[in-house]
């Protein structure tokens, strides 16, 4: 873990943090494109429920969700699942680097690492049950469920570590990080950029939507994320 810490430490700068969060948000947006297209073509009013959005489910409930999707919905979910193989790595870096920038030790990489591994296990299990459908494999379905639970626990834990790293309010944490990252008297830009990142993180972790999914209020969050991505690109342009 210390070797990984020394490998990641040089990446803990404002440019990389903004870029990684931007790519994470963009990947999340791309994840929902096939499902949104299916929703439109099927004449549905809300996005269909997929396994990623279910906090806990039995094997029967998991297969019922796949059945309700129908053939076109499952095909859309397969396409979304492919894009979800990029997000765990992006979020691992996005959750790790702010802590490293604040001068924290290698142990703060552990939770993001567990999150990433469990997310990949969940994605592989989901891909498998989608590929063999309508055949069942209850063990793999439950593996997807429990991996998703572990993912959520450690993503939330790491998010809380980022948001409350100095045991004070969020604004203080942002100010400290901005000072640490400020090398060219651009602390105002750093402050805006990091506050924007945390705002997105908190929106995605809203009670109506878990950390890795958009949920029922997907359209609003996606629009905010898209606008935020434009802000990131604008900031990067100014800095460069």
TrEMBL record:
InterPro entries on file: Ankyrin_rpt-contain_sf
Descriptive protein name: Uncharacterized protein
Gene3D superfamilies assigned: Ankyrin repeat-containing domain
Keywords, alphabetical: Membrane, Transmembrane, Transmembrane helix
Native species: Adineta steineri
Transmembrane segments: 12-32, 85-103
């Amino acid at each position: 873990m210390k070797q990984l810490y020394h490998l990641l430490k040089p990446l803990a700068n404002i440019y990389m943090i903004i870029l990684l969060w931007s790519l994470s948000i963009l990947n999340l947006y791309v994840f929902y494109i096939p499902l949104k297209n299916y929703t439109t073509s099927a004449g549905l009013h809300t996005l269909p429920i997929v396994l990623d959005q279910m906090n806990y489910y039995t094997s029967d409930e998991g297969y019922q969700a796949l059945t309700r999707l129908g053939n076109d919905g499952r095909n859309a979910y397969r396409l979304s699942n492919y894009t979800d193989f990029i997000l765990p790595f992006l979020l691992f870096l996005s959750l790790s680097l702010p802590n490293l920038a604040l001068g924290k030790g290698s142990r703060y990489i552990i939770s993001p690492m567990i999150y990433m591994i469990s997310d990949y296990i969940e994605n592989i299990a989901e891909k498998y049950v989608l590929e063999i459908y309508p055949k069942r494999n209850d063990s793999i379905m439950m593996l997807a469920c429990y991996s998703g639970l572990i993912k959520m626990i450690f993503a939330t834990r790491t998010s809380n570590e980022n948001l409350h790293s100095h045991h004070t309010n969020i604004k203080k944490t942002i100010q400290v990080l901005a000072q640490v990252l400020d090398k060219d008297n651009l602390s105002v830009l750093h402050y805006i950029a990091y506050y924007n990142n945390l705002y997105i993180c908190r929106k995605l972790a809203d009670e109506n939507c878990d950390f890795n999914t958009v949920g029922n209020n997907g359209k609003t969050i996606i629009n905010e994320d898209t606008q935020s991505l434009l802000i990131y690109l604008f900031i990067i342009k100014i800095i460069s």
